Amino acid sequence: LKTALIHAANSRYSSDPVFGHDYRRLKARLGPKAAKCAMARKMAIIYFHMRTKKEAFNPEIFRLNQTKFKEKRSKSLEQQLAALKKAA
Predict the structure, then answer these.
(1) Rounded CA gap, 27 and 48, in Å?
(2) Is this model's pTM higher than 0.70 or not?
């Protein structure tokens, strides 16, 4: 199961818009090996919750989190830019 999840996580790099963004972000921050393991864990948790709660996967939750992350990141970059302008 571990190997299958890691292979599935590795395939998310460019093909899946739901997990692809998270994988690329993790890969940039942690490196490729740790990103694969982190995504495999995320997928295992999602599978566990689907089995225990008997609910279908809802990709809209990930899209909302991605939107929040983008807003937070842009706000942070704007603050950094303002601080650089102030220092110059």
Answers:
(1) 24
(2) no
Q: Compute, in degrees rounded to 10, the torsion defined by CA atoms 24, 27, 33, 38.
A: -70
Q: What is the DSSP string of 20-80?
A: HHHHHHHHHHH-HHHHHHHHHHHHHHHHHHHHHHT----HHHHHHHHHHHHHHHHHHHHHH
pLDDT in tens, the chain (88 residues): 888 888 888 887 777 677 788 888 888 999 989 988 998 998 898 889 889 998 888 778 877 877 888 899 899 999 999 999 998 7
The residues, any chain, with a CB within 8 Å of residue 24's CB and separated by 6 or more, are 13
- Please name the residues in contact with 57: beta carbons below 8 A apart, sequence gap of 6 or more: 46, 50
